[in-house]
Amino acid sequence: MPATLKPPQPLSRGWPSFWRSTWYNWKMVFDNPLGEVAGSLGDLGTLLPLITAMAAAGTIDPTATFIFSGLWNIVSGSLFGIPIVVQPMKAIASISIARPMTLHETMGAGISVAVIVYILTFTGFLAEFGERIPIPLIKGIQMGAGLSLVLNAGATLMKLSWSAHSADNYIVVVLAWILLCFTSRHHQFPYALLIFGLGMFLVLSTGVEVPKAGWNLPTWTPPAWADVMNGFWFAGLGQLPLTILNSVVAVTYLSADLLPERPSPSIEALGTSVATMNLIGCWFGAMPVCHGSGGLSGQYRFGARSGAAPVMLGIAKVLVGLFFGSSVSTLLVNFPKSFLVVLVFAAGIELAKVGEDLNSTARDLWEIQVENRAIIHPTLGLRLHRERLVRVDITDREKKERFVIMLATAGGVIAARNDAVGLFAGTVCYLGYILQETLEDTSFTLLIFSAWKKTTAWLFRHVFGIKKRQPAPVVTSPPVRSRESSRTPLLRERRSFSPRAIARSLSPRRSRSPRISVPPTPNRAPSPPPRSLSPRRSPSPRRSWSPRRSLSPRPSADVTPIQSPVGSSSATGILRRPRSRGRSRSPRPEDQV
Predict the structure, then answer these.
(1) Residue 536 included in any domain
(2) Is residue 3 a part of any domain in this protein?
(3) How far apart are CA 253 and CA 258, in angstroms?
């Protein structure tokens, strides 16, 4: 096995250790301080536009959103020990801005999704679904989400211009992109921190009013039952598959691929975390949130390698929410869009890159191999076997089919802007390949054909009352090989089954085919061979004795040649006395004269 191919780590089950994750976070703070600080700002390209747009539309409470989302950042980073982000539920956010929805309807949508995710998690359906979904479908969902971020960045980019009167122009975008490309291999370079600081400096230099510090606390705003139902039908129903696939299943597999040295969060833990965050925060007007794979890839791209990055971002959010509240929205609205475009574009590319190892080191291309040999471990003692992961080789045809399934899933996600549509498209493509492979098996095809034949016969007989017509018996003669058939078997046109023809074929003198011998019947004497019925020499019937015949003169014993009749085939002939087939006897004395 090549040295570049590393087996993936198994997915975790249950809840991670809080103390081990906290110790690892502190260790990474001292080992990679700039990377963790810069990585914490990696998902601002998605977070800031949605928060400012929803706050301007009046569908969320900014103070409660900053406080509760920051609190969930701290808990998630401390519990999981990896850069798990807390992002807005994109489907609910986009629908609430476009419709627009009221604050209570938005909260009702988040609560309804949280209740359903709780039920699916505690019944075990969510974990079972996450383990059985094929890897090409998961890679397709991740690639589709990444390319969707790229398209969103492109849509924002089209609104800019070449004007240099503000920071929102193509020149700033090009300079920021050049800086990103030249520092792409240096993950410890604080690119996101530099971009955020430069953006805030440009905002303050435009003369925007600085928010005043004060004490702000969230208020209790419970939605009514009608608001919950309206929010679910308008926005929650479209958000549910996105939360299950992108916020739970995709994050589990993405964390295992990006950070193989760390235990990945289990599906049960992520499902419980998403449900708990919304069941608590939505009663105070906080924005419906989830764990997104795009935010995880964004923080990883800009240097985050542990849970210290979301903890730092969470502390900053809580402080902003408590001391500034909704007044900080004026700064966020004027943040340069040219910087956000580059951040979102880089996060989308990082997320779409996970489809690269689909046919090389994907999780389903490894199997456990057991070596039955004695191994003496210094701590564990004697072990009789050892397990290791071995890569499974696949054919070029299987590689192409897996790639097509991933593209079909990603295409559905991008085209419909919905993960459920992409999952459906990829599943149909996956089942189509399985069906074709099954039909190529001859035994299975014959089994299906036999079952179809028996089913149709039963239907015609018992339902329609139509019975199958029995064919008439065919009388066949015994196979007889004639002289002509033995000589030229390919020119046989007619066969005569008359007794004379059969006797001629059985004659040892005229037939060149081997004689057909019939085995004797038990307790019965064998029958004599058939007499020859040659046309040249036919047997004469036995005649009774008469005096006229006995008194006729006998010819001499000498053979007298005579002339052959005209037209005969030979010149001479031989005249012989025909022999009598009766018993020979000497003449009596009274017969002589």
Answers:
(1) no
(2) no
(3) 9
